[in-house]
Amino acid sequence: MASLREVADAAGVGLGTASRALNGTGYVSEEKKKMILKAAEELHYRQNMSVPEPAEHHAGLAAKGKTGIVGLSVPDMEQPFFAGLLKYLEIELHKLGYHVMMFNSLGVSNRVEEIVEMLEQHIIDGAILNTTESDIPGIGRVGSRIVAYECRPAEGMTQVYSDHRQGGRMAAEEFLRCGCKKVLQISSDSTFYTPSSERHRILEEILSAEGTEVISVRLAWTNILSYDYYRRSIEEYLRLYPDADGVFVEDISAYFALKHAEESGISVPEKRKIVGYDGLDLTRICQPVITTIVQDIPAIAKIAAEVLVKKINGESVEQNYVIPVYFQKGGTT
Question: Residue limits of the HTH lacI-type domain (predicted)?
Fold first, then answer.
């Protein structure tokens, strides 16, 4: 049985447009409506098959005209950090009586615009967004039902993010404790706002003030979630700066930095210190365990879910929720 998504794709329209045409809940041009109805007929689409029927405990939501569905958008579900975040968000939202629809936005055009359209058409009640997009049409009209994670797609939007200033400070203090004189740090070269850039700014500020040289490299965001790109980039810059005695990168790159050091005959931590960022499970699987700054994914998910539900219910919330990070000492420093 075909889903509403399949009908929309076959007709070459957005999910909201397909929903309006099939439900008769809003304007759709006659030309598009014919295309949508034809696609629905050819695919044997049956109304209401794409949206789960409200469970008994969702009866209260249905009575209030709500669907009990929330959209979750991240750039890349394959990336371990986002996979963990989605897992805990789904758990927390389920506790609060909501189902979730997950969206992978990197490399898929207009995915966040589609979410905005679904919010406007009340196909979903709210959304938690982590997006690289800016100037998203219509997002201001539905901002009261959106929580932004590590991004600011519109001015004044509620944000949840880790305390990256604290994280940058922890990393800097570890490099200073270890006596590092030349630290290579790698971040994303993004034109959009993200609080995560603060960790790199703070680290450079603290280390430079103490006389430690800091080399800051910014990589293109559109490639940064590729494992091969992580590997090639860390190898390239460690070849360019072989005398770097400190490396500050996200956990996946930290693993590749450790692997490169082993292959190059550079002892870690004797000759090179490596500090990761995120606190992924893989940092504790490899040997030595990677020293890293841990983002508290369960806490992030709990706060984001609770704040979103408050917004859906029209309750007042703060504009910014900053989640503490913590230090994981491993064998790479």
Answer: 2-63
